[in-house]
Amino acid sequence: MCSPRSSSQPSTDPPATQQSPVNSHNEWDPLEEVVVGRLEGATIPSDHPVVTCNVPTWAGRLQGLAAGMRYPSRLIGPAQDELDGLVELLQSLGITVRRPEPVDHKRRFATPDWSSRGFCNTCPRDSLLVIGDEIIETPMAWPCRYFETHSYRRLLKDYFRRGARWTSAPKPQLTDELFEPEFRTPAEDEPMRYILTEFEPVFDAADFVRAGRDLFVTRSNVTNRMGIDWLRRHLGPEYRIHEIASSCRTPMHIDTTFMPLAPGKLLINPTYVNPDDLPEALRSWDVLVAPEPDPIDERLLKVTSMCGKWLNMNVLMVDEKRVIAERHHTGMLRALERWGFEPIPCDLLHYAPFGGSFHCATLDVRRRGTLESYLP
Ligand SMILES: NC(=[NH2+])NCCC[C@H](N)C(=O)O
Question: Where is there biased composition of kind Polar residues (predicted)?
Fold first, then answer.
């Protein structure tokens, strides 16, 4: 029998005057605090069709053979050195860096319907969505990522205790009804089709980017229409969510397809996005077309990357001018300069086998700014 809560119990509500530690309305306001992912315990993800549908068939077969094994030190080593360099760079810029707990992602876990091992917590961008002072745990479609946000709970509880709003979207069941049976990735000349049904709402945070009251999303193999509708209803009429058409046949995460870099400046992937198909409200924006990525010669990196070649777009804005970008992709560095930005070259090429680059590896928890409208 629980004793009635006495009024003397301390409230967890912060003083009304306290600023929320979570405040991020767009991709470019001056960055004050960021969460950076971790590589420890990274485990090769399962060969569930929702995972392997995003990579070539041969890569999916290879992954099936290695699923559940720890990533080899040959891949972890170079990535760790580069990740340490990114943390040092962010701190040298006066940005507070927070980290999730290290986790043994090889441990098995289960729900009433299935069991799996984990994957990694290298990319906080994928599982946590920050909208203003709210941090949302997103309903991920990969079973191996089901409990990924648990490694961030110390941070989430700290943010909540200090005034942030903390929400978890409906936990999905991820049963077979969510996935199209016998799914086959469509060829370039075939109509687009997605592996997800509309059985329940699922979405990754990384399928969304923010421009104040306007958010942009790509429907993908981890984000279905019901997931987009759930967020639209959750955020209410103060926000607009625009769906961006992408011709990528293995769609997952918007941040190598469509990236708003500053007010009125939009970076697009020329092979996935047709400028004529952009929302009418973006007509006044400068559309910056990403240059071809610089070739990567390292065979091991090419074979083990979980991403396409357009990680040169996966940049992190420090403010409206300064942008952390991949040193290897010199074409993008020069283009950013031409467009009036100040690129800060940094190395993260070896993070691709773990899911991405700078935007993926980070979560901008607090930027100095307010909720604005940047579109008519
Ligand atoms: N937030 C992320 N993990 N983004 C990674 C981008 C992955 C994208 N599907 C690509 O192939 O480039």
Answer: 1-25
Residue pair 329/293 in contact (Cβ under 8 Å)? The answer is yes
Check if 360 has its Cβ closer than 6 Å to any atom of ligand 1.
yes
DSSP 199-267: SS----GGGEEEEBTEEEE---SS--HHHHHHHHHHH-TT-EEEEPP---SS---STTTEEEEETTEEE
Tell whether pTM > 0.90: yes
Q: Does the Cβ of 126 fall within 6 Å of ligand 1? A: yes
- Give CA angle at 280 (134, 133), nearest 5°: 10
For the chain, the first-to-last Cα distance in angstroms comes to 56
pLDDT digits (tens, 9 = 90+) for 185-237: 999 999 999 999 999 999 999 999 999 999 999 999 999 999 999 999 999 99
196: β partners:
179
ipTM score of complex: 0.96
Q: Whose CA is nearest to atom 9 of ligand 1?
A: 252
Whether the Cβ atoms of residue 148 and residue 101 lie closer than 8 Å to each other: no
